[in-house]
Every structure is written in C-alpha cells, then in structure tokens.
Amino acid sequence: MLVIGIAGGTGSGKTTVVNQIINELANEDVTVISQDSYYHETDNLSITERAKINFDHPRAIDFDLLVKHIAQLKKGKTILQPVYSFAMHNRTKDTVKTHASKVLIVEGILIFSHKDLRDMMDIKVFVHADSDERLIRRLKRDITERARDMDEVLQRYQSTLKPMHDQFIEPMKEYADIIIPNNKYNTVAIDIVRTIINERLQ
Ligand SMILES: Nc1ncnc2c1ncn2[C@@H]1O[C@H](COP(=O)(O)OP(=O)(O)O)[C@@H](O)[C@H]1O
Ligand SMILES: Nc1ccn([C@@H]2O[C@H](COP(=O)(O)O)[C@@H](O)[C@H]2O)c(=O)n1
C-alpha cells in the first residue's frame, strides 16, 4: 500500500486536491481518510462547551485511533472510519466501512505534526494558499456547508486558528516532499502527483 499524506492549512484546498488526484484512479485502487473524522469524541460536553474547543491544536485529534486505523489498513484489514459533524462539534454514531487498497490518501491540517503518523507516509504533500485566500474560502465554505456564521468564523480565526496555524501547520512544510501552490487551481501540480502515484503503482 502506498500511503500519501496531504497536509496544509484550512481552506488551502486539501480536499479539492484529493478529489482531483483520485478522479483518474480506479475507485477500487484508492482509499481516503480524513483527519477531521478523528476529532476526539465530546459526548460529555454541552454544545456550548464543545464550541469553545481549540480544534486547531494537535491535542484535539485522536491520533492513537488514526495511527491504529492506518496500521490496520496497511495490513489489509477493513476499518470503521468515524463520521464527524461540524454542526454538532462531535462524532456522529455512524461509521464508514473503509477497505484497504493500493493507495491510501490521508488528509488533514495536522497530520505532519505527529511523528508516528508522518513515518507511515511514503509521499508527503503540502498544499499552500495564502492566509487571506484561505480565510475567504473558509468563510464561504463554513457558512454554506458547516452551519457557521461570519462572527463564528472570524472569532475562531483570530483566537485559535491563526496562532495554531503559525505554530503547528506552517512549520510542517519542512517535512513535505512536494509543495503545491494552490492560490489558483494548479493542474500541473496535480498531474505531477498523479504521475508519481502511477509510477509507484507499476
Ligand atoms: N485553487 C482554488 N481556487 C479557488 N477555490 C478553491 C481552490 N481550491 C479549493 N477551493 C475552494 O475553497 C474551499 C475550501 O477548499 P477545501 O478543498 O475544502 O480546503 P481544505 O480541505 O484544505 O480545507 C472550497 O469551497 C473549495 O471549492
Ligand atoms: N467542530 C469543528 C472541528 C473543526 N473545525 C475546523 O476545521 C478545520 C479543519 O478542517 P479543514 O477541512 O478546513 O482542513 C480546522 O481549522 C478547525 O478550526 C471547526 O471549525 N469545528
């Protein structure tokens, strides 16, 4: 199994890049895991308390479960990937049966900050977009898709998101094999990553 990590700040375009990469791969050849599915369970907290969590700090992520699931997939086993609700700030009761395949793509803002996880990756890709561009995308996306309003996004951006990005995400570029500039759609970079994957699969 070829394990590809795709990191980058919120709104940099990680999910979009993943979709562009997998578009031309056969469905049965690729498995995708999102770090967002592995936010810790917060059943014991009220919705108001959950909304105060710093979701951009590594401690918000259940890395033990994420590492365990990737290890199981690497052994050819099937896992039950949690399903996360951004509206509830919590995992749902659902899971998605996720099978092993030739290529495993793991995407998320903090995946390069965890050494054991980093060491499981064969190729590390960092998607870069400038912070103003990312904030604009985040505002639009969170209001339309994640049940947020402008005040919530801007407040979170100033209080936790930006400082955590500068501390835990931007420095992780150091570990990247490839950095994709993604202020604009970058078809050339996607073609290069696809070529590398196809070469490794032969
Ligand atoms: N290169 C790009 N140019 C313009 N908009 C983009 C680009 N890449 C992604 N987007 C848009 O920005 C938003 C965030 O992208 P997404 O892929 O969800 O980012 P991430 O997964 O890194 O948070 C989405 O609405 C997406 O359509
Ligand atoms: N309940 C939550 C959990 C996470 N977030 C934000 O999601 C961002 C990471 O996801 P991307 O798809 O944008 O990479 C991260 O910046 C968290 O602030 C949230 O808003 N609510």
From TrEMBL:
Q: Which GO terms describe its cellular component?
A: cytoplasm
InterPro entries for this protein: P-loop_NTPase (IPR027417), PRK/URK (IPR006083), Uridine_kinase-like (IPR000764)
Q: Which reaction does it catalyse?
A: cytidine + ATP = CMP + ADP + H(+); uridine + ATP = UMP + ADP + H(+)
Q: Give the chief site where it resides.
A: cytoplasm
By its UniProt entry, which Gene3D superfamilies does this protein fall under?
Answer: P-loop containing nucleotide triphosphate hydrolases
Q: Does the keyword Secreted apply?
A: no
Q: What is its EC number?
A: 2.7.1.48
Look up the coiled coil feature and give its residue ranges: none
The entry's localization annotation reads: Cytoplasm
Residues covered by the Phosphoribulokinase/uridine kinase domain? 3-188
Query: What GO terms describe the biological role, i.e. biological process, of this protein?
Result: CTP salvage; UMP salvage
Pathway listed for it is:
Pyrimidine metabolism; UMP biosynthesis via salvage pathway; UMP from uridine: step 1/1; Pyrimidine metabolism; CTP biosynthesis via salvage pathway; CTP from cytidine: step 1/3
- Pfam families to which the protein is assigned, alphabetical: PRK
Alphabetic keyword roster:
ATP-binding, Cytoplasm, Kinase, Nucleotide-binding, Transferase
Q: Name one GO molecular function term.
A: ATP binding
- Catalytic class of the enzyme: transferase
Q: Does the keyword Cytoplasm apply?
A: yes
Q: Which family does it belong to?
A: Belongs to the uridine kinase family.
This one is known as Uridine kinase
Q: Which organism is it from?
A: Aureibaculum algae
The lineage, from the top, is: Bacteria, Pseudomonadati, Bacteroidota, Flavobacteriia, Flavobacteriales
